[in-house]
Hints:
The chain is an alpha+beta fold. 37% of the residues lie in helices and 26% in strands. The chain has helices at 3-18, 20-36, 57-81, 84-88, 93-99, 136-148, 150-155, 166-180, 201-213, 249-253, 260-267, 280-283, 287-292, 302-311, 332-338, 364-375; strands spanning 40-41, 44-45, 53-55, 111-118, 123-129, 159-162, 190-193, 218-221, 226-229, 232-235, 238-240, 242-245, 272-274, 315-317, 322-325, 328-331, 343-347, 357-358, 379-383, 389-396, 405-420, 423-432, 444-446, 448-453. It is globular and about 60 Å long.
Amino acid sequence: MDSTSDRAVADYHALLRDETALAQELEERFFARMRERHLTFGGRQLCSFPRPNLVSPAVYGQIGGVCRGIFRAIERAEARLGEELWDRVDLLPEERELARLDPGYARSSPLSRLDSFVTPSSYQYVELNAETPAGSSYADTLAEVFLEIPIVRRFQERWRLRPFQTGRRLLATLVGCYREAGGREKHPSIAVVDYEDVPTRVEHHMVREYCESEGYPSLVCDPRHLTYEGGRLRHENRPIDIVYKRLLVNELLERRDEVRPLLDAARDRAVVIVNPFRCKPVHKKAIFEVLTDDALQGLFTGEEQAAIRAHVPWTRRVRESRTTHGGQEVDLPDFILGRRDRLVMKPNDEYGGKGVFIGWEMADDEWTRALGEALGSSYVVQERVDVLREEFPVLAGEEGSDHGQLGFGDFVVDLDPYVFGGEVEGFLTRLSATSLANVTSGAGQVPSFLVEPRP
């Protein structure tokens, strides 16, 4: 699929297999390097794979074009359908209340991430994280660490690596939303807001450190510790201009009374919140039903339709209904029961692999019970993506030890482009030995680089 990256990977693996000193250095120092840069997720080592993901500029350009088409199609559906979209994606009443708040800028999801799997021939985009796309600061820090590793330095004698600028694009997007909303401070203050006990707290501080290094006063705080008085949102008396919201709307609503100052400041437009609450409709997994519904294809341009056909799997909300698949009308529950080996069901608004039913890994009776559960809740069903497993080096060692034993294994690659203002910059890249390729469910993360042969 990418002959340039295939050659680069072969060279990298040859270095690992043939250069004893380089492999030994990895075994003795790799985990220590990760800990020195606080690359953990909930206390667990974030990366045990001593090879980055390598993407050629040509393929990166293709990915950017496809993501642009899919993202524009989503924004077009949002604009054309209006609140009809809310019904189609099963937006809850309390979510609708917040979605009506005007954030002061145009885009519903200026920061997003299209989650995809690498397949034998291409990429399949299975979800849009339009609300709190995490992992970009982890990716930047991992890239910095990898560039310091001796084997990567040796590899660069023959290959040129370019890291992505996701941190820069994140900050530019936050400040851009602030300016569009009328903000005038030269260096507005930024608060990274999430509950203090979440496993991604380390990354929140990475964001803070980067923003501060660029001259923007920043802090990390829990939304329950905010105050709103005199028209200003504050944390420990520090005024806040921009809230980089790292928790989901439903997580705020679960503690509505405790986070009242943040909600009141949002209603009064006393602070700029990114992403805004109105991102929720396009964040729901059922947005992919809108993309793949035969009856709605007239909403999209020819280019957008082509991107959807080639790169978005058939998706429907799980309910008692008739729909189409492959141009044929089907009874949806009966169709789901009869296609267990080709379908996955997942909650319409959840993350971390929670509540996912993978048909080909279940028995018939388990799948029948899963369908009953999905029909009684808010779920989507999606066509199976035939993933490609790629060989990666992996270090196996005792938890907390600096030493690991180098080996090789085949892993599912979850390659998730970040989309800033509709344009791609960098990836969240996750590896997993199972069908669930997310860090919350035990997968690991590696950095991605653009790779080109040196002249």
